[in-house]
UniProtKB/TrEMBL annotation:
Gene for this chain: ravA_2
Pfam families: bpMoxR
Domain of life: Bacteria
Domain MoxR, residue spans: 22-190, 322-528
SUPFAM superfamilies on file: P-loop containing nucleoside triphosphate hydrolases
Source organism of the structure: Stieleria marina
Signal peptide: none
The protein's name in its UniProt record: ATPase RavA
Gene3D superfamilies the record matches: P-loop containing nucleotide triphosphate hydrolases (3.40.50.300)
Record InterPro entries: MoxR, P-loop_NTPase, RavA_ATPases
Upper lineage: Bacteria, Pseudomonadati, Planctomycetota, Planctomycetia, Pirellulales
Length: 689
């Protein structure tokens, strides 16, 4: 029996399949089966579930098919589900105007709004049962009881997309099983194979007008990617492959001769998802490239043409600005120079992660200001456990609270061209899910108003390892995919030379005495690293803070030279609490190897203090002469005990001098003078007793 014709979708039914197929073939490979099932969903119409590994363009295929069928954007509703999905969000949030009478939802902000004909639910099966069960009922009855009112569901097609395998996920979960039964059509979206020819076909579809050099790049990169794939542990998705092509192409954009060299292919390591790659990435990339040393590919303006809106700084100036800005102030900054250059050239989002104290946010803000952005033009927001959807979107618009829940989006990141989000992985799912949705669609539905996201580059910083976080949270995993570039920010080593280089960058005008202090302090810190458990390093922030405290301690106490007590001020720096009991011994041991000057200064200082203490004790003996016999005995006993402590202290100084071994003639002279001074003082004390 022929299906009944209707006025939706807005094309003849006979054209649904060819139009869907044409829309998908323009951009995707292995898409004919997906086009067939999508056309079936629109032809009936009925609900469809698309599932499979991330990065294969499930949502993109749906949106391209919708556009190819002439469906207006105003008729499409897209919503991200996940761990933080609630019934409130599903039905549009509370209707503020009716809260004084009953709990009703503002369904105009949900998929039930009558203008929506197509509904796309992303990551549907990540949501809790509290959201899935009522959704199942509405998909069955096509009516939602909103207080006393029945709200009809007008959507013709509901398409759910998920990275999970529903066959595994539905097992033992009645809510998921019941909801799955409301999706008549179901299809896994993945490539049948991930070989060189498949990636090359993808590149050819996305870049149809490439030059001969561009096509050669596609061939070489396809070979590299296929060589990186490991069937059981890692396969590069189409999304990752396209991003890899962008970063490699950017390397030619940075060069005046517009050439791709073998080194350019190493930029693949910045692509989202490559952080989980366990094999030696650099070696495996080199293995797939031609062996000739002069290998290069010449690109043309045709390959580098980019119609996407860039940042305010011209693209050709960005590499030099980023490089000069970071090299001037930071050490071990080469990789972050590269990843930020790629992010600003494209432009696209980037995630910087790694241990605290390495200046991730500082580097980003420094570069953005060098690119011409003032503080008020950079949106900076800290996330955390208390981050809420209200704060994310600028807080409620108080003037409209009696009508609806609308946000003051002018106070959010949406109007800003560049955005920095700190500690993004500390936020709850309730905040991360809607953020992921907006980063995908670049549009935020604020009540009934569509607010475009003007942000071109979002830089997220976190001290957490996203690889670990993504294992435990589907919301985090989905959000991470919206940051095409990712880099772990840490030093390759934490040795004396690294800290000396840091101090030199921070204090470029230092004179020889200050540079000597830098050397000694760097040696001490490197030794502290060696003494701790694997994985601990004194961060650049702690090192600079400790150096500043040590220098201040010298000045505060009116000393001309640094002593051990000045270096010990590092124990008051954040992060060093666990060193309080053994730090002095560790520092003295380190100074024996690389800071004898400080130890000699320390002994000189303590000897001077002991000389003063001896004078005080002699005054005590003198004051006792005028007292009666009993009182004189008590005072003399006190003075004798103090003198014994003083003698013990002198013996300690002598022992320390014995352990100090020096080869430098100047230091040897200094040590001899100190030894003579200590011996004279010791003799004076003994004579006094």
């Amino acid at each position: 029996m022929a299906a009944k014709e209707s006025n939706w979708p807005p094309v003849p039914r006979s054209e649904i399949l060819p139009r869907t197929r044409a829309a998908l073939r323009e951009r995707f490979v292995y898409c004919d089966e997906i086009a067939d099932v999508l056309s079936a969903a629109f032809y009936e119409p009925c609900n469809l579930l698309l599932w499979g590994p991330g990065g294969h363009g499930k949502s993109d295929m749906v949106m391209n098919a919708v556009k190819g069928l002439g469906v207006s954007e105003d008729e499409v509703f897209v919503q991200s589900f996940g761990e933080g999905m609630s019934e409130d969000r599903l039905w549009g949030g509370p209707d503020m105007a009716s809260l004084d009478t009953c709990l009703r939802y503002d369904t105009q902000r949900s998929f039930l709004s009558p203008q929506y004909k197509v509904v796309v639910f992303e990551e549907l099966f990540d949501a809790p049962a509290q959201a899935l069960l009522p959704l199942k009922d509405v998909l069955t009855r096509r009516v939602f009881m909103n207080g006393p009112d029945a709200v009809a569901m007008n959507a013709r097609v509901v398409i759910a997309c998920t990275n999970k395998d529903p066959r595994e996920f539905a097992d033992g979960n009645d809510a998921v099983q019941a909801l799955m039964e409301r999706f008549l059509l179901q299809k896994e979206v993945r490539w049948p194979a991930y070989e060189k020819k498949h990636y090359r076909e993808l590149f050819a579809k996305v870049h149809r007008d490439s030059s001969m050099g561009g096509k050669e790049l596609h061939t070489q990169l396809s070979k590299v990617i296929a060589g990186l794939n490991e069937t059981k542990s890692f396969v590069m998705s189409p999304r990752m492959a396209l991003q890899a092509l962008k970063v490699v192409t950017n390397c030619a954009r940075m060069r005046p001769d517009k050439k791709i060299t073998a080194e350019a292919f190493q930029s693949i390591r910045f692509v989202q998802g490559m952080q989980s790659y366990t094999a030696e990435l650099e070696r495996k990339i080199e293995k797939q490239l031609p062996k000739n040393a002069d290998f290069e590919i010449q690109l043309t303006d045709q390959d580098l043409r980019d119609d996407s809106p860039g940042l305010r700084t011209p693209r050709e100036k960005i590499p030099a600005v980023v490089h000069s800005t970071l090299k001037k102030r930071f050490i071990h900054s080469q990789e972050i120079i590269q990843v930020l250059t790629h992010a600003f050239l494209q432009p696209c989002n980037v995630l910087l992660w790694g241990p605290g104290g390495h200046g991730k946010s500082d580097m980003v803000m420094t570069v953005l200001k060098a690119l011409g952005y003032k503080d008020r033009e950079i949106f900076l927001q800290s996330f955390g456990e208390g981050m809420s959807e209200d704060r994310l979107w600028g807080g409620p618009n108080i003037a409209k609270l009696d009508e609806c829940l609308e946000y003051d989006t002018d106070r959010s990141f949406l109007p800003y061209e560049v955005v920095v989000l700190e500690e993004i992985l500390d936020a709850s799912s309730q905040a991360l899910l809607p953020l992921k949705d907006v980063l995908t669609r670049r549009l935020f539905m604020n009540a009934d108003q569509a607010v475009p996201m003007k942000s071109k580059t979002i830089i997220a910083c976190t001290n957490k390892d996203p690889r670990q976080f993504a294992k435990d949270s589907d919301a985090v995993k989905a959000l991470l995919e919206r940051f095409p570039l990712q880099l772990e920010v840490r030093w390759p080593s934490y040795e004396q030379k690294d800290y000396e280089a840091l101090f030199a960058k921070a204090h470029p005008e230092s004179k020889s005495d200050r540079r000597k202090l830098h050397r000694i302090y760097a040696h001490v810190i490197a030794n502290l690293n060696d003494d701790r458990e694997t994985g601990f390093h004194v961060s650049p922030r702690i090192a600079l803070g400790g150096l500043k405290l040590a220098a201040n301690s010298v000045g505060r106490h009116g000393r001309k030279k640094m002593i051990v007590e000045d270096i010990l001020t590092i124990r008051n720096v954040q992060g060093m609490e666990s060193y309080k009991h053994d730090m002095e011994a560790l520092i003295r041991k380190a100074l024996l190897e690389g800071g004898v000057e400080v130890l000699l200064s320390d002994i000189d200082e303590r000897a001077e203090c002991m000389h003063g203490r001896m004078a005080e004790i002699n005054e005590i003996f003198e004051s006792a002469k005028d007292l009666d016999e009993e009182a004189r005995g008590d005072v003399n006993d006190e003075a004798i005990n103090a003198m014994l402590d003083l003698m013990s202290g002198m013996d300690q100084l002598k022992r320390e001098l014995i352990f100090i071994q020096v080869a430098d003639p100047k230091l040897q002279v200094w040590k001899e003078i100190t030894e003579k001074k200590v011996d004279e003082l010791s003799a004076e004390i003994e004579a006094g007793t």
